[in-house]
Amino acid sequence: MAASPLHGQCFCGNIQVDVEVTYETTGFSPRACDCSFCQAHGAAYVSDPRGKLQIRCGSYGVTSFQQGGDTDSQASFYFCSHCGVLTHVLHHLHDAVDSTVTKSIGAINYRIIPNFAQVFASPVAVSPRTLTTAEKIERWQANWFPAVDVLLSSESHGST
């Protein structure tokens, strides 16, 4: 049985996400990365390689932090530029010939979903620090939302 579509947002509503997953969320444990960056933000991630993710960014904009080596091996973590909430992480796949981004895959911080503790099972610890760069990218491609749709907007924000 597929779960209902989910909606989440940062604290101020500047970044909003719409998620469709193909699993029942109450049986899914978000992945709590053990790296110091994710631990400092209290982040745990949900994704679905058969699901859909749309991200809408309002006029306050987003701030990103790249973690990893060169551009092809980086994960980009995104925060609301207004309220500072870590909302999602993306990995950008590049064309081998001209290095343009061909698509982005990603996951969301489950804490941006209202009532996240009731919607999902308890987080489970994962340790990507033990993986090589190639293993991380392979894992992201196997587990994250494919072809994330990111919309930039200057429309109004949610309530604070």
Describe this structure in words.
With 160 residues, the protein is mostly beta strands. It is built from 3 helices and 11 strands; from the N terminus they run βββαββββββαβαβ. The chain has a 5-stranded antiparallel beta sheet, covered by helices on one side. A 4-stranded mixed beta sheet has the order 1-2-5-11, with no helix packed on it. Strands 3-10 form a two-stranded parallel ribbon. A hairpin with a 6-residue loop joins strand 8 and strand 9. It starts with 5 loop residues before the first strand and ends in an 8-residue tail after the last strand.
Helix content: 10-25%
Q: How many strands? A: 11
Strand order of the largest sheet: 4-9-8-7-6
H and E order: EEEHEEEEEEHEHE
Rounded to an integer in angstroms, the radius of gyration calculated over CA atoms is 15 Å
pLDDT under 50 segments (min length 5)? none
Shape: globular
Q: Look at the helices and sheets and give the structural class.
A: mainly beta
Query: What is the end-to-end distance?
Result: 35 Å
Query: How much of the sequence is in beta strands?
Result: 35-45%
The pLDDT mean sits at 87
Give the helix tally: 3
- Largest sheet, strands/sense/barrel: 5 strands, antiparallel
